[in-house]
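Reading a protein record of the kind used here takes only a little practice. Each token is a code from a learned vocabulary of local backbone shapes. With that in mind, consider the following protein and its fold in token form:
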Amino acid sequence: MAGRQLLPQGRHGRRRLLAPDPPGLRQPAHGRQAARRPPLRRRPHTRAPAPALRRHRRSLAGSFMVANDAIVAEAGKQATSSSGSGQLQSFAWMFGSSAGALGNLLGGIALSYFSPRIMFLFFAILLTLQFFTTVTIPESSLKLPKANTNLSALTSIRKQVKELSCALCMPEMFRSIIWFTLSYTVIPFLLGTMFFYQTEVLRLDSSVIGLSKVFGQVALLAWSMSYNKYFKTMSARKVLSVLQFALALVMLSDVLFVQGIYRKIGIPDSIYTIVFSGLFEGLMFFKVLPFSVHIAKLCPAGCEGSVMAFVMSALALATIISGYFGVALAAFMGVSGDDFSALPACLLIEAACTMLPLCCSSLIKERREKVKKEE
């Protein structure tokens, strides 16, 4: 995840930090160029429109991810057996994470030989080819329920909104979505602050930050395979609670990292950044998988896509809010580009807020169904 952009020095001589990129928007299928990046440069006369345009571009990419998750959820609902439930979602995450790791490696290697302008041009060509390839694939091959073509656009939208409202009125559905959204909203994410601390204070090479992205995608692939094989039949409440607790542990480990404890016992800063920063981002992405499987099980037939699109949109909003909470926390505690003495305290607050959703994990309800075993 990209860090915050530095604005010019203000009246009081301190640099202000822009809001970070939303951490909950996953990009497994085409990870960011990571293994080797050009050196970070400060541009004193850079204004806000450039970061704003980048955020709009990533928001557009996030909208495609919302549509992708909706299609996967709707197609995955076709599985009738309990063993096949959630299998398509797991496979989608496996392929996405493996493609993300490969894309990071190839992109990093290419950046060593080509300029960023050439890389953007090549990426645009790949997106164009992907667009024309997608257009040529008939929608009937997805085996999705056929829509009623006799309805007008306005009537169809009203029908989908009504079905979505009925689905959200289900207590187990509504409470689960509330918990999942709050599990992101209440956390003041400090990913941008940590990124700036690693690159500008510790002077870690950009290849280290890039390798952490690759490690996170590999960890995401391993967790997706493990979930599909071992943990898919477990209660969603248990899986999500364990993941939430693991996130808090990684944040507590960051406190020791900032205080230099790991450096004193012989663990280099680069190794810690590669492993734990990658694990943290992988956990943030992976938490969506068991919840999407849980929601797919609760969804009434015919509105899986609408519900999953609503969930991912709520997740995007929650991560934006949590990012601004992180900015507010860092500013309130006095963390700036020249002073990181209060960063350990900020990380402790972040870990404490991460533990808060565990107190209301009972909101995650599962529908009890009688399973008939046939001999």
Summary: The longest helix spans residues 304-333. The two ends are 51 Å apart (CA to CA).
